[in-house]
Design brief:
Blueprint: E1 2-8, H1 29-35, E2 41-47, E3 68-71, E4 74-77, E5 102-106, H2 129-135, E6 138-146, H3 148-161, E7 165-174, H4 182-192, E8 196-198
Parallel strand pairs: 1-2, 1-6, 2-5, 6-7, 7-8
Antiparallel strand pairs: 3-4
Helix pairs in contact: 3-4
The structure holds zinc ion.
Zinc ion binds near residues 49 and 55.
Length: about 200
């Protein structure tokens, strides 16, 4: 059975000091590097927004980061500008091992956000990752990264939707926690779809 390791958004803007910093986000990088050699197929996703992306509060007059608004007909949390294509913040944390890793980008359409690395938030367009996995006979994906309560969660839900077995590495994830408890609720939502939540030491 082919297994793939999926590293979600291990980018500078989601690390401490970044534009959309996730607390302790950098602490998951060693876990990613530790697991990589155990997989034949490793994929890193990259949030990759144009400057006019509609998820940015700065592109909505009067809005501030954390506000709830609308984008592409869907409810949308407005974020600080982050992961703007080609900026330092959009690149991977310097310690992430990228040798032999396949990169999939998301969030390139200014009119809709894409938390999941597989489909945009409206399930209107695919990133290509789902077909890529299925074409390689991947049956199981092991997923970790940032942030638990957004991009990890929705990537897991979409992977389950494609019929993939999913293992989420709990200690390889950290959350934004706009509301305290969001990460725990996200793990519950993932578990409810049949994803297994494990510690890296159990793998
Ligand atoms: Zn984003």
């Amino acid at each position: 059975m082919t297994r793939a390791l999926l590293l979600v958004d291990l980018q500078n803007d989601f690390m401490p000091g970044g534009a959309l910093a996730v607390r302790e986000g950098d602490l998951v990088v060693p876990t990613a590097n530790l697991l990589e050699p155990r997989f034949d197929l490793v994929i890193a996703t990259q949030d990759w927004h144009p400057p006019n992306h509609g998820s940015f509060a700065s592109n909505h007059p009067g809005a501030k980061p954390g506000d709830l608004g609308e984008l592409g007909g869907l409810p949308q949390v407005y974020w600080p500008d982050h992961c703007v294509q080609g900026t330092h913040g959009s690149w991977f944390h310097r310690d992430v091992e990228l040798n032999g890793v396949t990169i999939f980008r998301k969030g390139t359409d200014p009119g809709i956000d894409s938390y999941s690395a597989i489909f945009d938030n409206g399930h209107r367009k695919a990133t290509g990752l789902g077909d890529f996995l299925l074409a390689r006979g991947v049956r199981e994906t092991v997923i970790l990264g940032l942030a638990t309560d957004y991009c990890v969660k929705f990537t897991v839900l979409d992977a389950r939707g494609l019929g993939l077995d999913v293992i989420v590495v709990e200690d390889g994830c950290r959350g934004v926690e706009l509301i305290p408890g969001d990460s725990d609720r996200a793990f519950e939502a993932m578990r409810a779809t049949g994803a297994r939540i494990v510690r890296s030491s159990e793998l």
